[in-house]
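Hi R.,

Here's the input for the flavin mononucleotide complex you asked about:
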Amino acid sequence: MIGVIYWSGTGNTAAMAEAVGKGIAAAGQDVVVKSVSDVTVDEAAAFDKLALGCADMGAEQLEDMEFEPFYNELEGKLSGKKVVLFGSYGWGGTWLDDWAERVKAAGGEIVADNVAILGAPDDDGNTQCEAQGKALAEA
Ligand SMILES: Cc1cc2nc3c(=O)[nH]c(=O)nc-3n(C[C@H](O)[C@H](O)[C@H](O)COP(=O)(O)O)c2cc1C
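And here is the predicted structure with flavin mononucleotide in place:
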C-alpha cells in the first residue's frame, strides 16, 4: 500500500494528488490518497512508500499551520522510506527543492523528480503526476 498525502488550499495540489494516485494504481499497486487533515503522523509513517504534496506557501515554504507541523514530525520517521514530492505554485517554485533536501537529510530516498506545477495541472501536468506515481510504485 502506497500513501499519497497532501495539503491543498484551493484544490490544485489536490488534483495533482489524484493524478499521482492514478499513476500508482495504473502500475498495479494499492494506493490511499488523503488530505493531511485526514491522516495522523503514525498512519503516514506506516507506509514504506510515500508521495507527499504541498502547495508553495509562505515565502517558498510548506504551508505552516497544518502541513509543516505534520511533516516536521513525520520527518523523523522517514529513514529508509521511498518518497516523491509534488505541489502547485504561483510564482516561485523553489520550495520542493528545499523540501527534497530535508527528506534526504532525514534518510528518505527521493526516487523520482519533484513535480512542481504552476496553478492547476493541465493534461501535461496530470501526465507528469501520473508518471511520478508510476515511478514510485516501481521503485
Ligand atoms: C498565503 C499564500 C502564500 C503563497 N506563497 C507562495 C510562494 O511563496 N511562492 C509561490 O510560488 N506561490 C505562492 N503561493 C501561490 C500558491 O502556491 C498557488 O496559488 C498554488 O496553486 C496553490 O495550490 P493549492 O490550490 O493546492 O492550494 C501562495 C499562496 C498563498 C495563498
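One thing worth noting: The helical segments are 12-26, 41-45, 67-75, 95-105, 123-138.

Cheers,
M.
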